Structure formats: structure tokens, C-alpha cells
């Protein structure tokens, strides 16, 4: 079955620096990947997604990289801001709209 | 805000009781998925409903059941509550075909505590 894991449970970053969050997945059939941000007391919020036919996708201050060879994806946040403090989850989907989430990485932004 | 609402916000039940959680999807969204999120963990897929029919189920026992209604609302029912059912329950709605993927919009969740 699918499993998705994150390498670091907590990431502490200085305000203004770049953040990199990593994620590994196990199911080679996964064809769609999403990064979510979850703040305390709220549901997950969509950040950026990428399909398996791409290896990079950029959004506003965020970039997702996908390496299908080693089944790894990462989320890069440029110029991290205090509002970026949250738990970040990667999720993978292999067939029909059913997501498998990783365990989450907490990002703490230091002023 | 995603336009997805859930009720109640918090709920306390005792072991063996039954609970019903409710979700109101974004207007027009034909797919709703339910997830269980234990403290400090990622959400776990419970099941999904597409056009009022179950469209996939995760590794959860039959005492977890659901309904989806034509008015874009849905319910998650849990019978014979166990202590391990204590978690944040999330619903997510999307506009998707049975086998397609589109962005899922999550509600704020219902925090269930089982004593």
C-alpha cells in the first residue's frame, strides 16, 4: 500500500531564509502530489500540487520538486515569513481522489 | 476560507456511544472525503462519497459509515466509540469525476474526544 513519510518532524528557520521540507513516498503508481499547510485549529490548506509528468512546479514563494526515480518530493519556501509557521503535509494520490498523507513537519520561523 | 463547514466544532462522548458528524460542502461539489487525524499525525482517509454513493474506503472498520445528500451535505457516523477514535475529523469536498482528481477543500474539522 501507499505510505508517505517526512524526514524531519520539526524545522526551525530564520525569518527571511529559505525553507526546504522533504517527503518520500512508497507507491510508484502515485501520479499526483500535493503539499498542504495546516495551522492550529484549522483544516489543511492547499499550497501547491504537481503531477507525475512534471519534475518542478513554482507558485508564489513556493516550489515543489518531484524526483520519481527515488520517489521523493520537496517543498521549498522562499524568504520564510512568520505567517509560514505551521505544520506542512505532503500527500500522494494513486487512483481517484483518495489521498495518503505523510506525518507532517512543523515549521517554526524565528524572528 | 474554503467554504466547507463542519459541525459541531468539538464533541465529547463516552466509550460505546454513537456519534454523527456533519459537513457542508462547497456548492456544486459532487465529491466528499472524510479523514481522521490523530494528534500529531497526518490525516488518514476514511472513505469518499461521489454523487451519494461510497467511492472508496480506507482501512477503517464498518462501524464508521457515511451518507452524502443531494444538498451537498454529508455525515460521518461512528458506532460503538472506542478511546482510539479520539481525533480531529476532517471532511474535504471537491468537484471531481469518479476517477479524476481535483483540489480538495478541507473544512476546519470536528474535534472528537472519547472518554
Describe it.
The complex is a heterodimer of chains A (111) and B (115). Chain A has 111 residues and is mostly beta strands. Chain A is 0% helix and 55% strand. Chain A is built from no helices and eleven strands. Chain A has strands spanning 4-6, 10-14, 19-25, 32-38, 45-51, 56-58, 62-67, 72-77, 86-93, 99-101, 105-110. In chain A, the strands form two sheets. In chain A, strands 2, 4, 5, 9, 10 and 11 form a six-stranded mixed sheet that branches. In chain A, strands 1-3-8-7-6 form a five-stranded antiparallel sheet, with no helix packed on it. In chain A, strand 6 and strand 7 form a beta hairpin. Chain A starts with a strand and ends with a strand. With 115 residues, chain B is mainly beta. Chain B is 0% helix and 50% strand. Chain B is built from no helices and eleven strands. Chain B has strands spanning 5-7, 10-13, 19-24, 31-37, 44-50, 53-57, 64-68, 73-78, 87-94, 105-106, 110-114. In chain B, strands 2, 4, 5, 6, 9, 10 and 11 form a seven-stranded mixed sheet that branches. The relative contact order of chain B is 0.34. At the A-B interface, strand 4, strand 5, strand 9 and strand 10 of A face strand 4, strand 5, strand 9 and strand 10 of B.
Amino acid at each position: 500500500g501507499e505510505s508517505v513519510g517526512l524526514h524531519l518532524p520539526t524545522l526551525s528557520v530564520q525569518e527571511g531564509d529559505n525553507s526546504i521540507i522533504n517527503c518520500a513516498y512508497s507507491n510508484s503508481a502515485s501520479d499526483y502530489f500535493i503539499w498542504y499547510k495546516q495551522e492550529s485549529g484549522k483544516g489543511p490548506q492547499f499550497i501547491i500540487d504537481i503531477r507525475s509528468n512534471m519534475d518542478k512546479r513554482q507558485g508564489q514563494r513556493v516550489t515543489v520538486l518531484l524526483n520519481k526515480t527515488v520517489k521523493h518530493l520537496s517543498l521549498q519556501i522562499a524568504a520564510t515569513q512568520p505567517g509560514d509557521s505551521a505544520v506542512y503535509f505532503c500527500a500522494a494520490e494513486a487512483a481517484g481522489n483518495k489521498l495518503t498523507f505523510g506525518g507532517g513537519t512543523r515549521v517554526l520561523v524565528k524572528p | 476560507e474554503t467554504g466547507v463547514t463542519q459541525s459541531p466544532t468539538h464533541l465529547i462522548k463516552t466509550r460505546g456511544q454513537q456519534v454523527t458528524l456533519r459537513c457542508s460542502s462547497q456548492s456544486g461539489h459532487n465529491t466528499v472525503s472524510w479523514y481522521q487525524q490523530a494528534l500529531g499525525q497526518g490525516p488518514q482517509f476514511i472513505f469518499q462519497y461521489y454523487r451519494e454513493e461510497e467511492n472508496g474506503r480506507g482501512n477503517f472498520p464498518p462501524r464508521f459509515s457515511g451518507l452524502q445528500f443531494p444538498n451537498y451535505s454529508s455525515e460521518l457516523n461512528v458506532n460503538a466509540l472506542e478511546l482510539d477514535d479520539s481525533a480531529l475529523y476532517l471532511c474535504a469536498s471537491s468537484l471531481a469525476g469518479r476517477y479524476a482528481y481535483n483540489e480538495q477543500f478541507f473544512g476546519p474539522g470536528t474535534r472528537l474526544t472519547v472518554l
